[in-house]
Each structure stands twice: as structure tokens, then as C-alpha cells.
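QUALITY CONTROL LOG
STEP: pairwise intake check
CHECKER ROLE: data steward
CRITERIA: each record must contain a sequence immediately followed by its C-alpha cells, with no blank fields

ENTRY 1 OF 2
RESULT FIELD BELOW
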Amino acid sequence: MKCPKCGMITEVKETRGHHDGVVNKRRRECRWCGNKFNTYEIDDGLEKTLKKYLAAHIKAVQKQQALTLRNEKIIARLEAGEKHMVVAADFGLSDNMISTIARRAGIPAYQKMRRKEEPSAAPRTRKKKAVETSKKVTPASPYKTVWRHPSA
């Protein structure tokens, strides 16, 4: 490395590692003018690793934000009264996934349809089916079964 004062080559007098070997502190001295100064060097491998992890973290946060925005749109459409199958088809998701999103938002998955009450006061009764009295005849098997003793 060159001296900041005269521009000549310097030599390292002392090296110390700081912060678990991530940063190296070097004490340098110029051969010509005698200038003493410190340099701090960061490990390049660590810097690349940190950049990689930072990029992955940013990508994960962006994906989470996109999923949150999508889920908010789905919830708004479900609250507006659209059917689950229609919303699922529009977003390319399964009906089960839409139901899971709705359940987490506190929206009931499906509401039971209530019967409209009839104006008559008479209770409904079921009609009994007519019972046939004739016996059903099954056709005879084309194969005749003959029993034989195993010792014969």
C-alpha cells in the first residue's frame, strides 16, 4: 500500500483482528518519510455473504407484502358477497386456500341457506311411498353347482 503523504510503498508493522476476525486493523509505516497510519480491512468473503443474505431478506419481505396485498383483495371480495369458487378461479387458487384465508380473517367459509317459511300453519308431513307386494324373482344361474366330497 502507498503512503498517503509521499506515495511511496509502506510496510506493515502490526496486524490485529477485531470483531471475531471480520475486520483486520493494520499498523503501517512509510519507509521513506516515516509516516505512521492505520488501515482497516473488511473480509471480502463476509461482505459478499452479507450482501447475499440482505438480498434474500429483501426478496422475502417483498413477497410477504405481495401476499398480504393479495389476501386483502380476496377478503374484500368475500366480504362483498362473492362466492369462494369465483374468487378462487380469479386468483388461481384452490377453494380450500380461499377458505383458509377467509377463516383467518374471521369470515365464515360457507353460510347455510335458510328455508323460506311457508305461510300455511299446517306442519309439513312426508308422503309415504307405495310398497310393492309382489316378490321379485331372480333369474337362475346358468352354472349348476354340484357338491362333491373332497375324498372322492
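ENTRY 2 OF 2
RESULT FIELD BELOW
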Amino acid sequence: MTVAFVTGGAQGIGAAVARRFAADGIDVTVGDLEEKRVAAESDDLRFAPLDVTDEASVRRAIGDAGEVDVLVNCAGVTIAGHPVDEVSLADWQLQIRARLRGYADDGRLPTGAARATPRGDRRGTFCSSRRDRLSRLLPRLRRSKLRHRRIDRSGRRFPHLSDKGERVNETTPSRERLVDLYRLLVLIRRFEERASELRLAGFIPGFLHPSIGQEAVAVGVCAALGPNDAITSTHRGHGHMLARGADPRRMYAELYARRDGYNRAKGGSLHMIDTELGFLGANGIVGAGIPLATGAALQLKRRGTGAVAVSFFGDGATNEGAFHESLNLASLWNLPAVYVCENNLYGEFTRQDKHQTVKDVAVRANAYAMPGVIADGNDVLETLRVTSEAVTRARAGEGPTLIEAKTYRHRGHYEGDMGAYRPPDEVSQWLARDPIILFGRQVVEEHGVTQQRLDEVAADVERELEEAAAFADASPHPAPEEALEDVYAETYEGAALR
């Protein structure tokens, strides 16, 4: 029988993972603080007292569990106050990868001793034995010099568009189109999972707010857009940018705070931007992208090109004045705008029913005389259909639409938030509706795509992201004197020079 040990398994995502294991017939031990024993113990789960701030406690709990096949860390990333990359990997086998089933099973843990020693020139770069588990989990980051230092802008992907930038027939998607959509879903998921791993290892500074679980919204919405359309994003914007056709290499370089990033290390995760993609930026301020998209829609209408502007935001943002002011103006001026609320049921750490009285955000469209439509945000084809209808209306001059895509983030508000405020049963139910699993099953059973083809796509994504991480790792750090570049526009008599 497979044996699993889940740290932090008494509540939140840890409890959901433990119960998922138990439902699959796995022998599960959960490790957590002693005062949480009553909440953690059950007929299906064993409890082991564990305090991740106490290294002796960690060693004792995992050692008493015996031979463990799967180790999942849902409790924290430090031991005795030290970062993971300063702790012996033989003592603490960190496992944070959540694959498509919601957890990881990479085989048996190594039994030999191995110590990861960070290089002196770069924190978080491991030089360790081949038996070192974390070195196998992380991408193999090569340090060879890039053959071409110049940034390649030819890698943008708009697989959902024809050569003329027109939408492909949405009623009868081809197999290859479905595979393209599946690839984007997997690309976003694995990009963010790897980013989380790389951040824990010290490669990526700052915070990450992953959209793991919400990929179908980004893919479905962006698949309905053309190359001349524009979007604004949120603090959870990696998926939107990748679905728009961004280069993962330059995105990782930006997360690494390197010169070859999209914004030369000035944007980071929260403020990445590329206007050539029509991506008008992620944004760390709640709801701040909504008026930006409204202004973009006004400009697009004045140009008369038939392009539209799309704004992504969460349920919490619909309480902001910027949301109501923007929808009012968009309706008043009949703007080609589509407002997409990614309702993952939580505004940061607060459930939707605790911060607003309406059950469906879409009803707020009634106050501004525009359509309000609800979509299953875990169904990429339904999201694509609903968005295509809204985009068609906007292009025809029929005004804006508010779309509420109901979805769920699998992880906390940010990497490190263990989600103790979310009921384990709720998390488990939504993990079972993973959009990638659902879509993969759909294209195999209903559209004749083979599982082998999907596996090949996943393998190709892994290769691409490994190369992307290597590109970012080899990219140079910006020089201190570059800090003030790109901050001020050159002007002449008060007007910006173009």
C-alpha cells in the first residue's frame, strides 16, 4: 500500500489533500500541532504531532511514519527559522508540487544522505549529488551562455486565431484547436507550479499570487480575442498573459528580476506588461485594471477598428467604486468592453457571502443596462462560447457585457497562505472539478483526441518551461544605474516624444 505523510494536514489545503489521499485508498498520516489532533484524527487518517519550526519535531514525526512514498508539505517552508535551501534535504524532503490530481507522487524518497549547498554567488542555486530530491524536482537550470542575447519576439502564439486574425468557428472546434486550448491550460498550470518551486528555492524574489485552478477562464476568454484587442489583468495575472501569447522565457526572466524580462525587472509578478501583446498590465491594486480597460475601450471605439477591451478582476473588486463608475460610463458611451469577473468565492481571505449581499455578481450589470452572464469558469469551452458572444456584441457596436466566471483557486491567496479559512470539504469538491482534468477527459471521450496526444503536449510544455527557466537563470542582473531608466518619458515643451 502507498504511504503518504502530509504536514499541515489538520486544516485548509492540507486537510483536503489528506482526505483526497484517503479516498484513493492511500495510508495517510497527517502532521500538525498537538492542539489540532481532534480536528485531524479520523478513521481514515492517523495523526503525528509536528511543529515545522522545530527541526527535531520534523525529524521525529517523519521518522516515526516509516517508509514514506509521498511527502507533501502543506505546513510551511522553514525549519528552525532557516530557509529551505539552508537545510539538509535528507532531513527535510520538501514536496510542494501539486500535479493535475492535486498532489504529487514522484516515487519513493531517497534514503541516502545528501546536502544541498547554495552557491556563494547566487542564493538558491543547488550543487548537490544526483540523489538529491529537490534538484530532481526543480528544472535543470543550465548556465551556458545564450547563443543570441537579442530578445526573440517571434515566439508569440495565437493558436486560436486564423492568419487574418479572425475567430475560428466556435461551434465546431477542430481537434487541433482543442489540443491548442489544452496546451495553454497545462502551460499556465505548470508555469505557476514551477514558479512556486523556484520561489521557494530562492530564485524568485517577492510574492506570487498563482491562479492555479482558474486556468479555464484565462484560456477561454483570450481564445475569443483577436491580435488587436486589449486586456487588463490583476495581481493574479500570469495565466492571462500566457493565454494572450506571452513568451514564458521573458516572463520567468521578469520574475527572476533579470534584464531580459518583459519589463527589465521593474514589473515583477504584480506589474508585468507588454503593450505589443495588447496586455495592458497586471496590477497590484484591487480593481485598478477596470477603469484602464474602460479607457482603452473608449480609444478603440474612437479608432473604429472593431477591436475590444477586456478587463479581468475578482469578486472583491466589484465592491470598488472603480467597478461601478467604469460600468456606468461604458454603458453610457456604448463602449466595446467586456468585463470578466473571475469569481473564486473569496476576496483575499473573505468569502463572498461575507463581503456582499448578492449571490451572483452578474446581477450587478442590471444597474447599468448591460447584459450580465454567468459562465462555468472551470469549463473552457463554455467560457469561450460566452465570451465570443460578448465580443461579437461589442464589435457590432452593441455595447459592453459583464461576465461572471465562477471558479476556484486551488491554493491560498498568495504562495505561503495555507488557506485555513477555507473548509476542507469545499476545497476537496473544487479539486475534483479541476478544469484541466475535466477538459482532458472531455476531448478524449467526446472529440477523439488520444490520451497519448495529451501526454505528448504535457511533455512538450515541460521541455519549454525547462528552457524558459534556463533562459531566465542565464539572463544578467540589471545594473544599478538602470534603476531610473524607463521611468520618465522624454518630453519637449510638456509633450511626450514618441
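INTAKE CHECK: passed for both entries
DESCRIPTIVE NOTE, ENTRY 2: Residues 175-200 form the longest helix (26 residues).
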